[in-house]
Amino acid sequence: MTLQTILSAICVLFYLSMAGDEPTITEYTTPYQWTTVDFDWDNSIPMSQSDAEESGLYIMENNIITGLKFYKNRTFLTVPRWRPGVPSTLNELKLVNHKPVLSPYPSWNMQTPNNCSALQYTQSMEIDIDAGKMWIVDSGYKYFFDDPDEYINTSYTVPDTTCPPKIV
To answer: H or E element: which one contains 71?
Structure first.
C-alpha cells in the first residue's frame, strides 16, 4: 500500500461524474482511516507520547489535519495550532510498522512553540514541483480557538501573538 493510497483516506475524495446537468457521486474507497492523529514518537520526537500528554505538549483532541500536499513519493500534512497541545504544525507522513504517523518536518527543533525562528502555525503550504521547493506561510499567531477566560491570571494571551508572521 503506497503513502498516496493511504492518504486518500485522510481526504475522502469523491469522484463526481456528470449525468446531464446534475452531478452524481460514484464509488469511492477508504484504504485507511484513523480517529486520532498519531505522531512518530519513537523516531522523530525526543519524548514519549505519555510525557507529551502529561506536559500538555500533546492534547489529542486538539490535533486536526487541514492541509495535504504530495511531492514525488512524499506526503506533507499540516496540523494548525488552533489550540494548545499540537506538537508539530508541519509534518511528513511516514509508515511505522505499517501504520501512518506524522513526523515533524523539517525537524522537531523547527516546531518549538514560542521560538519565533521555528514554525508556529502552518495552515497549508505550496510545493513548487519544478524547483522542488516548499513555500510555507506561518501566521506566527496560534491558539485562535482557545478560551481567554482560562488565562485571566497568567501572562498568556489568546490568540498568542508572540511571533510575527513569516514566509519560509
So the answer is: strand 67-71
CB atoms near residue 12 (< 10 Å): 10
Residue 156 burial class via C-beta count within 10 angstroms: exposed 0-12, middle 13-18, buried 19 and up = middle
Do 17 and 80 form a contact (C-beta atoms < 8 A)? no
The model carries a pTM of 0.75
- 14 and 27 Cβ atoms separated by less than 8 Å: no
- Whose grid coordinates read 509534518? 91
Task: Supply the pLDDT for residue 13.
Answer: 35
- For residue 10, the Cα-to-chain-centroid distance in whole angstroms is 12
Q: Is 106:118 a contact under the CB 8 Å cutoff?
A: no
* Mean pLDDT of successive 10-residue stretches along the chain, which has 168 residues: 44 38 64 77 86 92 91 93 93 88 93 91 92 91 69 55 79
